[in-house]
Structures are given as C-alpha cells and as structure tokens.
C-alpha cells in the first residue's frame, strides 16, 4: 500500500469536507439574503472565514461533493481492508 496514495486520498477527503462546509455556508447566506450577488456573498460571508477566490467558489458550487466524497471514502475503506488482509498474512 502506497503512503502517497493514502495521503492523496486523505487530502482529497479533507478538501471535499471543506467544500461541503463552504457550500453549506453559501446556501445559508443565500437563504438569508436571496437577492445578494454571489460576489458579495463571497466577500461578506465566506471570505472572512474561508479566504478563497471567486473562481474557487464557483468550482465548489459546481462540484458534486456527496458523490465524490462517497467515492473517496469507498477507496479509503478498500485500502483499510487491504491493509488488514496484508497484516493477517504476516501474523
């Protein structure tokens, strides 16, 4: 099992969890202020907490977070099962 593979899966999982928090904050802000432009929501509500660019915000809004998160967590689980089997072989 590759250390870099585990690390990249962890980095991807953490990025998606951060995206989920940002998307939830965006949706909450839109509900409270429905006619506010996206750039103002970013400037007033999101950027003080998560300093991201407008392009990154648009990327987050277009990302299918739940689907990708399920795929990453399935890959992590598969790696854990593989590690467990390998440990049993050498015990």
Provide a descriptive summary of the structure in words.
The protein is mostly helical. The chain has one domain. The chain contains four helices and no strands. Helix 1 crosses helix 2 (38-46). The radius of gyration is 18 Å and the shape is elongated. The mean pLDDT is 91.
Number of helices: 4
Q: Which value, in Å, is the CA radius of gyration?
A: 18 Å
What is the residue-mean pLDDT, rounded to a whole number? 91
Helix content: over 70%
Q: Domains counted in the coordinates: how many?
A: 1
Distance between the termini: 17 Å
- SS elements, strand count: 0
- Structural class, by secondary structure, is mainly alpha
Uncertain runs are none
- One letter per element, helices H and strands E, the order comes to HHHH
Shape category: elongated
- Main β-sheet description: none
- Work out the oligomeric state of the chains in this entry: single chain
State which percent range the strand residues make up: under 5%
List the helices and strands and how they pair.
Elements: H1 3-32, H2 38-46, H3 54-62, H4 65-89
Helix pairs in contact: 1-2, 1-4
Task: Give a short overview.
The chain is mainly α and 91 residues long.
List keywords for this structure.
91 residues; mainly alpha; 4 helices
């Amino acid at each position: 099992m590759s250390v870099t593979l585990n690390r990249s899966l962890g980095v991807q999982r953490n990025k998606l969890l951060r995206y989920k928090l940002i998307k939830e904050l965006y949706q909450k802000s839109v509900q409270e202020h429905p006619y506010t432009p996206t750039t103002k929501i970013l400037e007033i509500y999101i950027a003080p907490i998560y300093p991201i660019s407008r392009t990154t915000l648009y990327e987050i809004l277009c990302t299918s977070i739940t689907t990708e998160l399920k795929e990453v967590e399935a890959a992590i689980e598969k790696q854990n099962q593989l590690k467990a089997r390998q440990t049993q072989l050498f015990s």
